[in-house]
């Protein structure tokens, strides 16, 4: 804690400096600088306030200790002892809170996400499992008060998905769903299995933050756009014009095809939105892999080739292999009750970051 307290004193000095800068008329008139300072000040506010409370508690502990040493009055000693114990308990809790607040923050945690789910190994059963995962995340999003919109889908004849892309918007979506990146395995008896044998299939989940114009700027010269007629089952909404859009980012070879929207313009906007996230995710993953090689941590790496979780239907069990957590409540989890798993992954991630700080691998805030 001593190392953290030293850095906190420096942080308090910077916080005071920022408040002074933000009252400078010259900076107030410079919108860009003012916004940058405002964001920095806001990011520090909770930590500084917690540290100020911590210092008040330390003073209370010191004062109570002094009273106990200098007075012979039993009543005063009892009051001071109660105050001392209360302040020590509060300070201990606050130390933990401050430590968590000081952990390096993921800059994407506040962002909305684009999630892509694909049926992988297992044919029709894999596509059905992809649909089950889509339903699970939809129910979880509803419980969180988030908005859940399908933006592109490629369904199968059995009612599953070869692939489906959704946009989830709300408060701190990425901070909770970033741990879902990876291969999800299901063990169950498929509806098409006449002999009653348990099959193993997989579906992959990719979670990408939704990036704004300020985050990434794609050169139009690097994007090839093709338009074509949407395919579909027909009906009154069948497209009679070339409204479907396919965008290819030439440097990476990433392709986004969009035909789910009613007009070419809407398909263009959605395709560009997803393309930006995929391209940014591509470049970020390259950097992340270098970082993870040093850090050797599986949680939150976004490695989609690794099996992160198994859903065992015969035993009503879900196992997250990264943290060794098994829960015999698969039915509830598939109903969107993911909090227990996600909270455990967050705690594990925080624990690993604390270990890196203590070993000197990672700097604080």
From TrEMBL:
Q: Where is the Prokaryotic-type class I peptide chain release factors domain?
A: 229-245
The record ties this protein, via SUPFAM superfamilies, to: Release factor (SSF75620)
A GO-annotated cellular component: cytosol
- As stated in the Swiss-Prot or TrEMBL entry, residues carrying the post-translational modification N5-methylglutamine are 236
Q: Where in the cell is it found?
A: Cytoplasm
Pfam families the UniProt entry points to: PCRF, RF-1
Post-translational changes noted in the entry: Methylated by PrmC. Methylation increases the termination efficiency of RF1.
Primary localization: cytoplasm
What Gene Ontology molecular function terms does this protein carry? Answer: translation release factor activity, codon specific
**Annotated InterPro entries:** PCRF, Pep_chain_release_fac_I, Pep_chain_release_fac_I_sf, Prokaryotic/Mito_RF, RF-1
Which of UniProt's keywords are assigned here? Cytoplasm, Methylation, Protein biosynthesis
Protein family (similarity comment): Belongs to the prokaryotic/mitochondrial release factor family.
Protein's job: Peptide chain release factor 1 directs the termination of translation in response to the peptide chain termination codons UAG and UAA.
- Which PANTHER family does the annotation name? LD18447P
Protein name per the record: Peptide chain release factor 1
Q: Specify the species.
A: Companilactobacillus allii
Per the UniProt record, the lineage of the source organism begins with:
Bacteria, Bacillati, Bacillota, Bacilli, Lactobacillales
């Amino acid at each position: 804690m001593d190392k953290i307290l030293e850095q906190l004193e420096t942080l308090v000095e910077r916080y005071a400096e920022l408040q002074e800068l933000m009252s400078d008329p010259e900076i107030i008139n410079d919108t860009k600088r003012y916004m940058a300072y405002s964001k920095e000040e806001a990011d520090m506010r909770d930590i500084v306030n917690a540290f100020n409370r911590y210092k008040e508690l330390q003073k209370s502990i010191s004062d109570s200790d002094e009273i106990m040493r200098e007075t012979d009055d039993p009543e005063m000693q009892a009051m001071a002892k109660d105050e001392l114990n209360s302040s020590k308990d509060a300070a201990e809790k606050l130390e933990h809170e401050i430590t968590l607040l000081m952990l390096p923050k993921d800059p994407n945690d506040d962002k909305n996400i684009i999630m892509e789910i694909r049926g992988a190994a297992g044919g029709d059963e894999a596509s059905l499992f992809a649909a089950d995962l889509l339903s699970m995340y939809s129910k979880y999003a509803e419980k969180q008060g988030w908005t859940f919109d399908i933006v592109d889908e490629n369904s199968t004849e059995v009612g599953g998905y070869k692939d489906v892309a959704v946009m989830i918007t709300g408060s701190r979506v990425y901070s909770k769903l970033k741990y879902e990146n990876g291969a999800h395995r299901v063990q169950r008896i498929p509806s098409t299995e006449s002999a009653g044998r348990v099959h193993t299939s997989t579906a992959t989940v990719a979670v990408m933050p939704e990036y704004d114009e300020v985050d990434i700027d794609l050169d139009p010269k690097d994007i090839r756009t093709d338009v074509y007629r949407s395919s579909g089952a027909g009906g009154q909404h069948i497209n009679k014009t070339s409204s479907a859009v396919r965008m290819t980012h030439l440097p990476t070879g990433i392709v986004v095809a969009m035909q789910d929207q009613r007009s070419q313009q809407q398909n263009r906007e959605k395709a560009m939105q997803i393309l930006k996230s995929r391209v940014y995710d591509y470049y970020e993953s390259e950097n992340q892999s270098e970082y993870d090689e040093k850090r050797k941590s599986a949680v939150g790496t976004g490695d989609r080739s690794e099996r992160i979780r198994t859903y065992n239907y015969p035993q009503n069990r879900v196992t997250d292999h990264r943290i060794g957590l098994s829960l015999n409540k698969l039915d509830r989890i598939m109903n969107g009750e993911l909090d227990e798993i996600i909270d455990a992954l967050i705690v594990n991630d925080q624990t690993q970051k604390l270990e890196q700080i203590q070993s000197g691998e990672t700097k604080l805030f």
